[in-house]
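Consider the following assembly input.
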Amino acid sequence: MSVVTIERKVLEKNDELAAKNRELFQHHGAFVVNIVSSPGSGKTSILERTLEHLKDKLRIAVIEGDVQTDFDAQRVAKFDVPVVQIITNGGCHLDAKLVQDALGNIGLNGIQLLVIENVGNLVCPANYDLGEHIKVVVASTTEGDDKPLKYPTMFRNASALLINKIDLLPYVNCNLAELKTNALKINPNLEVFETSCTTNYGIAEWCHWLEKTSREYYK
Amino acid sequence: MSVVTIERKVLEKNDELAAKNRELFQHHGAFVVNIVSSPGSGKTSILERTLEHLKDKLRIAVIEGDVQTDFDAQRVAKFDVPVVQIITNGGCHLDAKLVQDALGNIGLNGIQLLVIENVGNLVCPANYDLGEHIKVVVASTTEGDDKPLKYPTMFRNASALLINKIDLLPYVNCNLAELKTNALKINPNLEVFETSCTTNYGIAEWCHWLEKTSREYYK
């Protein structure tokens, strides 16, 4: 039995569980977003700003994924929304089983938007369906403009791209037009937002789109 | 046969090949550094600055690892040193076999320093020995000060930490003292350097240490 076969079996098993998660989400009318990025691109900060904007408009719950620590869950808990931390203990991505287990600790009744923040990793999480409705990829200006070409799967599988830390553009070696061109070359259907969690630039536009997209899904 | 068993077998096989690579490096008197970080922390920029400083002092070769594209090898080739690009085609880390294959395309005769730039990923490369003598982890100030605690294995296995993009410190939410404390909590033996590839801050100190460390290894 080759390793490749095992890997395919792992992914097939994951897809089955992801389909079950998705059924459960549909049953509850919860729209589910899987946020992915490199470590330190600003996923948790984006989530904090999003909760500030949307928590009085939508009933939101959060699943946090990290290799170690529950720092991110602590940050999110301040917004008084249900949050569960998954610690992967060295694992490089969330999978559908981990999310299924976490769902046992979070009531989906009445939840309209569930945000899953994945482990900071621009490679592995791309291949694991969690049952989400959309993936959102965050790429910060400090990472440069070539990342969509170097890590294409993540950008190909995402519905939206948040170009974060836009306030740092004057100080870093990143051509914004080039970054967008590269991202749209990989995935012409990407919705692209420019954001800064420091200045709040673009947060309203992103939140407006997210609210609209989640509401329209169940219309 | 469980997936865990297969994974252990993969790692055991990797360790065997890594030991063979290491023997080959020893045979040629080449000191080998495995550079790891998140995507966009500045591994390639650090390498460019290092080549500027050391290429007339040490005979250097480079192996570049990327998920897609040979952009980094192109950047390095400008310094007129031997360079081979490994494209993992979706793979999230280099392994000893990929490095062994690359070594077939690079002559180690007379090489004193071989730098292997790993795939941008702060999780998976931590578990794969390539046969290197030391791992060096790059963490940029823009990623925040909590990364050593959230991705501990990489910091535990490294000999040196380069805190890069130090010039951006005034603009980002990163406490430098806290970042160092967190890194040294995980690994008290880390050599810590503060660097900027934009201003060249700290590059001389890092290169001095790297040269000294590679020369002393074969004394």
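The longest helix of chain B spans residues 3-28. Ask yourself how this observation constrains the way the partners meet.
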